[in-house]
Amino acid sequence: MALFQFYVKTGIFLIVTIILGPLYFFILLTFYRWRQSIGPKLVQFYSKICLLIFRVEIEQVKNYQVFEKNKKGMLIISNHVGFLDIFVLSALFGSVFVSKAEVKYYPIIGQIAWLMGVIFLNRNASNEKLRVLNTIVNKCSTRIVVVFPQGTTSRITERMSFKRGIFKVIELNPDISLLPITLYYKDDVEIAWNKPQSFKENAMRISAKKRIHIKVIIHKSVTIDDYRGKTTPQICAMVEKTVLEPLEREYRE
User: Fold this and answer.
1) Residue 220 in contact with residue 66, Cβ under 8 Å?
2) How far is CA 217 from CA 62, 78, 120, 134, in A?
3) Are 26 and 19 contacting, i.e. CB atoms less than 8 angstroms apart?
4) Closest alpha carbon to 192 in 145, 249, 148
Protein backbone atom coordinates (compact mmCIF):
# COMPACT_ATOMS: atom_id res chain seq x y z
CA MET A 1 0.00 0.00 0.00
CA ALA A 2 2.81 2.41 0.90
CA LEU A 3 4.51 1.69 -2.42
CA PHE A 4 1.24 2.30 -4.30
CA GLN A 5 0.68 5.65 -2.57
CA PHE A 6 4.28 6.60 -3.27
CA TYR A 7 3.88 6.01 -7.01
CA VAL A 8 0.51 7.80 -7.14
CA LYS A 9 1.68 10.89 -5.31
CA THR A 10 5.03 10.93 -7.07
CA GLY A 11 3.27 10.54 -10.41
CA ILE A 12 0.96 13.48 -9.74
CA PHE A 13 3.92 15.53 -8.50
CA LEU A 14 5.91 14.79 -11.66
CA ILE A 15 2.96 15.59 -13.94
CA VAL A 16 2.45 18.96 -12.22
CA THR A 17 6.18 19.69 -12.40
CA ILE A 18 6.42 18.71 -16.07
CA ILE A 19 3.46 20.94 -16.95
CA LEU A 20 4.41 23.98 -14.86
CA GLY A 21 8.20 23.76 -15.33
CA PRO A 22 8.40 24.75 -19.02
CA LEU A 23 5.57 27.27 -18.51
CA TYR A 24 7.41 28.94 -15.64
CA PHE A 25 10.63 28.96 -17.65
CA PHE A 26 8.85 30.70 -20.55
CA ILE A 27 7.23 33.27 -18.23
CA LEU A 28 10.52 34.10 -16.50
CA LEU A 29 12.35 34.50 -19.82
CA THR A 30 9.56 36.62 -21.27
CA PHE A 31 9.46 38.90 -18.25
CA TYR A 32 13.21 38.62 -17.59
CA ARG A 33 13.47 42.13 -16.15
CA TRP A 34 10.97 41.29 -13.41
CA ARG A 35 11.95 37.63 -12.99
CA GLN A 36 13.15 37.92 -9.38
CA SER A 37 9.85 39.41 -8.22
CA ILE A 38 7.64 37.13 -10.35
CA GLY A 39 9.60 33.92 -9.67
CA PRO A 40 8.84 33.53 -5.94
CA LYS A 41 5.12 34.04 -6.59
CA LEU A 42 5.14 31.32 -9.25
CA VAL A 43 6.96 28.91 -6.93
CA GLN A 44 4.62 29.87 -4.09
CA PHE A 45 1.66 28.67 -6.19
CA TYR A 46 3.56 25.49 -7.15
CA SER A 47 4.40 24.83 -3.47
CA LYS A 48 0.76 25.11 -2.45
CA ILE A 49 -0.12 22.46 -5.04
CA CYS A 50 2.67 20.20 -3.73
CA LEU A 51 1.35 20.52 -0.17
CA LEU A 52 -2.04 19.33 -1.45
CA ILE A 53 -0.43 16.40 -3.28
CA PHE A 54 1.39 15.21 -0.16
CA ARG A 55 -1.63 16.07 2.01
CA VAL A 56 0.23 18.46 4.28
CA GLU A 57 -2.04 20.36 6.65
CA ILE A 58 -0.60 23.51 8.21
CA GLU A 59 -2.61 23.46 11.44
CA GLN A 60 -1.26 26.68 12.87
CA VAL A 61 0.86 29.64 11.85
CA LYS A 62 1.61 31.38 15.11
CA ASN A 63 2.49 35.11 15.17
CA TYR A 64 2.13 35.66 11.40
CA GLN A 65 1.75 39.39 12.11
CA VAL A 66 5.47 39.52 12.96
CA PHE A 67 6.22 38.62 9.34
CA GLU A 68 3.59 40.98 7.92
CA LYS A 69 5.10 44.01 9.67
CA ASN A 70 8.21 43.87 7.52
CA LYS A 71 8.17 41.61 4.49
CA LYS A 72 11.38 42.98 3.02
CA GLY A 73 14.91 43.03 4.36
CA MET A 74 14.27 39.74 6.13
CA LEU A 75 16.29 36.56 6.47
CA ILE A 76 14.31 33.55 7.70
CA ILE A 77 16.22 31.18 9.98
CA SER A 78 14.52 27.79 10.32
CA ASN A 79 15.16 24.27 11.53
CA HIS A 80 15.35 21.71 8.72
CA VAL A 81 13.41 18.43 8.81
CA GLY A 82 12.98 17.31 5.20
CA PHE A 83 12.07 18.28 1.64
CA LEU A 84 8.55 19.34 2.66
CA ASP A 85 10.08 22.32 4.48
CA ILE A 86 10.76 24.00 1.13
CA PHE A 87 7.10 23.79 0.10
CA VAL A 88 5.83 24.94 3.51
CA LEU A 89 8.06 28.01 3.73
CA SER A 90 7.62 28.94 0.07
CA ALA A 91 3.82 28.62 0.31
CA LEU A 92 3.64 30.80 3.42
CA PHE A 93 6.28 33.43 2.70
CA GLY A 94 7.01 33.47 -1.04
CA SER A 95 10.69 33.07 -0.24
CA VAL A 96 13.83 32.06 -2.11
CA PHE A 97 16.41 29.70 -0.67
CA VAL A 98 20.11 29.10 -0.35
CA SER A 99 20.67 25.85 -2.24
CA LYS A 100 23.55 23.54 -3.04
CA ALA A 101 25.25 24.37 -6.34
CA GLU A 102 24.29 21.06 -7.98
CA VAL A 103 20.62 22.12 -8.19
CA LYS A 104 21.58 24.79 -10.73
CA TYR A 105 22.29 22.05 -13.29
CA TYR A 106 19.03 20.12 -12.85
CA PRO A 107 17.02 20.17 -16.12
CA ILE A 108 14.45 23.01 -16.17
CA ILE A 109 14.22 23.20 -12.34
CA GLY A 110 17.81 24.43 -12.12
CA GLN A 111 17.26 27.08 -14.78
CA ILE A 112 14.06 28.27 -13.09
CA ALA A 113 15.87 28.45 -9.75
CA TRP A 114 18.65 30.51 -11.34
CA LEU A 115 16.22 32.87 -13.09
CA MET A 116 14.22 33.55 -9.93
CA GLY A 117 17.32 34.30 -7.88
CA VAL A 118 18.01 31.21 -5.79
CA ILE A 119 21.39 31.58 -4.09
CA PHE A 120 23.69 28.67 -4.92
CA LEU A 121 26.41 27.49 -2.56
CA ASN A 122 29.38 25.43 -3.71
CA ARG A 123 30.61 23.94 -0.45
CA ASN A 124 33.90 22.81 -1.97
CA ALA A 125 35.01 26.21 -3.29
CA SER A 126 37.30 28.49 -1.29
CA ASN A 127 35.86 31.84 -0.14
CA GLU A 128 32.42 30.59 -1.20
CA LYS A 129 30.82 31.31 2.16
CA LEU A 130 31.88 34.96 2.03
CA ARG A 131 30.45 35.30 -1.49
CA VAL A 132 27.15 33.77 -0.37
CA LEU A 133 27.01 36.08 2.64
CA ASN A 134 27.48 39.11 0.41
CA THR A 135 24.84 37.81 -2.01
CA ILE A 136 22.36 37.35 0.84
CA VAL A 137 23.13 40.85 2.08
CA ASN A 138 22.27 42.27 -1.33
CA LYS A 139 19.18 40.14 -1.98
CA CYS A 140 17.63 40.52 1.47
CA SER A 141 17.03 44.22 0.89
CA THR A 142 14.26 43.38 -1.61
CA ARG A 143 13.60 39.65 -1.13
CA ILE A 144 12.73 37.14 1.58
CA VAL A 145 15.56 34.62 1.84
CA VAL A 146 15.47 31.34 3.80
CA VAL A 147 18.52 29.70 5.35
CA PHE A 148 18.69 26.39 7.21
CA PRO A 149 21.66 27.01 9.53
CA GLN A 150 21.80 23.37 10.63
CA GLY A 151 23.13 22.60 7.16
CA THR A 152 21.24 19.31 6.94
CA THR A 153 17.95 17.68 7.87
CA SER A 154 17.42 16.08 11.26
CA ARG A 155 14.91 14.75 13.76
CA ILE A 156 13.78 16.74 16.79
CA THR A 157 15.71 14.48 19.15
CA GLU A 158 19.00 15.11 17.33
CA ARG A 159 18.98 18.86 18.06
CA MET A 160 21.54 19.68 15.37
CA SER A 161 23.51 22.83 16.21
CA PHE A 162 23.32 25.97 14.07
CA LYS A 163 26.33 27.07 12.06
CA ARG A 164 27.16 30.59 13.14
CA GLY A 165 28.54 32.02 9.87
CA ILE A 166 25.16 33.17 8.57
CA PHE A 167 24.65 35.37 11.62
CA LYS A 168 27.29 37.79 10.34
CA VAL A 169 24.78 39.00 7.74
CA ILE A 170 23.33 41.69 10.00
CA GLU A 171 26.82 42.97 10.78
CA LEU A 172 27.35 43.41 7.02
CA ASN A 173 23.96 45.06 6.57
CA PRO A 174 22.32 46.42 9.76
CA ASP A 175 19.05 47.02 7.89
CA ILE A 176 18.42 43.28 7.65
CA SER A 177 16.47 41.48 10.36
CA LEU A 178 16.45 37.77 11.18
CA LEU A 179 13.14 35.96 11.51
CA PRO A 180 13.49 32.74 13.55
CA ILE A 181 10.91 30.10 12.57
CA THR A 182 10.15 26.69 14.07
CA LEU A 183 8.77 23.92 11.86
CA TYR A 184 7.11 21.34 14.09
CA TYR A 185 5.77 18.18 12.40
CA LYS A 186 3.45 16.03 14.46
CA ASP A 187 5.04 12.80 13.19
CA ASP A 188 8.58 14.12 13.14
CA VAL A 189 10.25 10.69 13.36
CA GLU A 190 8.55 9.52 10.16
CA ILE A 191 8.82 12.84 8.29
CA ALA A 192 12.47 13.67 9.05
CA TRP A 193 15.02 12.73 6.42
CA ASN A 194 18.15 11.53 8.17
CA LYS A 195 21.08 9.40 7.05
CA PRO A 196 21.53 6.61 6.09
CA GLN A 197 17.96 6.82 4.79
CA SER A 198 17.79 7.48 1.04
CA PHE A 199 15.60 10.19 -0.48
CA LYS A 200 13.34 7.54 -2.01
CA GLU A 201 12.91 5.81 1.35
CA ASN A 202 12.03 9.10 3.00
CA ALA A 203 9.61 10.04 0.18
CA MET A 204 7.90 6.63 0.51
CA ARG A 205 7.36 7.11 4.25
CA ILE A 206 5.95 10.58 3.66
CA SER A 207 3.71 9.37 0.81
CA ALA A 208 2.34 6.59 3.01
CA LYS A 209 0.94 9.14 5.46
CA LYS A 210 -2.78 9.82 4.98
CA ARG A 211 -2.24 13.34 6.29
CA ILE A 212 0.76 15.26 7.56
CA HIS A 213 0.27 17.82 10.33
CA ILE A 214 2.60 20.72 10.94
CA LYS A 215 2.73 23.85 13.07
CA VAL A 216 4.75 26.89 12.07
CA ILE A 217 5.87 29.17 14.89
CA ILE A 218 7.16 32.64 13.99
CA HIS A 219 9.29 34.21 16.68
CA LYS A 220 10.25 37.79 17.46
CA SER A 221 12.59 39.18 14.82
CA VAL A 222 16.26 39.78 15.63
CA THR A 223 17.72 43.15 14.62
CA ILE A 224 21.04 44.94 14.91
CA ASP A 225 19.91 46.22 18.33
CA ASP A 226 20.00 42.65 19.64
CA TYR A 227 23.63 42.38 18.51
CA ARG A 228 24.86 45.19 20.73
CA GLY A 229 27.14 43.84 23.44
CA LYS A 230 26.95 40.29 22.04
CA THR A 231 29.27 38.20 19.89
CA THR A 232 28.17 36.32 16.76
CA PRO A 233 28.35 32.94 18.58
CA GLN A 234 26.10 34.34 21.34
CA ILE A 235 23.53 35.51 18.78
CA CYS A 236 23.71 32.12 17.07
CA ALA A 237 23.11 30.31 20.38
CA MET A 238 20.21 32.66 21.22
CA VAL A 239 18.43 32.06 17.88
CA GLU A 240 19.14 28.32 18.03
CA LYS A 241 17.48 28.11 21.44
CA THR A 242 14.52 30.18 20.20
CA VAL A 243 13.93 27.90 17.20
CA LEU A 244 14.52 24.52 18.85
CA GLU A 245 12.98 25.07 22.30
CA PRO A 246 9.32 24.67 21.17
CA LEU A 247 10.22 21.21 19.81
CA GLU A 248 10.77 20.02 23.37
CA ARG A 249 7.07 20.46 24.15
CA GLU A 250 4.42 17.93 23.24
CA TYR A 251 2.69 18.48 19.92
CA ARG A 252 -0.96 19.36 20.62
CA GLU A 253 -3.61 19.66 17.93
Assistant:
1) yes
2) 5, 10, 27, 28
3) no
4) 148
Q: Which domains does the chain have, with CATH numbers?
A: 2-248 (3.40.1130)
Q: Which residues are 182's β-sheet partners?
A: 217
Neighbouring-strand partners of residue 78: 181
Contact status, residue 211 vs residue 5, Cβ threshold 8 Å: no
C-alpha closest to that of 131 among 141, 121, 140 = 121
Closest to 206 (Cα-Cα) out of 12, 10, 11: 10
pLDDT along the chain (253 residues), means of 10: 81 91 90 88 93 95 87 86 93 86 73 76 71 78 86 86 90 90 93 84 87 96 91 94 92 74
Look at the pTM and tell me if it is higher than 0.70: yes
Point out which residues pair with 121 in neighbouring strands. Answer: 100
In whole angstroms, give the CA distance from residue 10 to residue 16.
10
Q: Give the Cα separation of 104 and 115 in Å (integer).
A: 10
Cβ neighbours of 207 (radius 10 Å): 20
Which runs of consecutive H residues, i.e. helices, occur in 94-174? 109-116, 128-139, 169-172
Q: How far is CA 185 from the centre of its chain?
A: 14
Measured CA to CA, the distance from residue 96 to residue 120 in angstroms comes to: 11
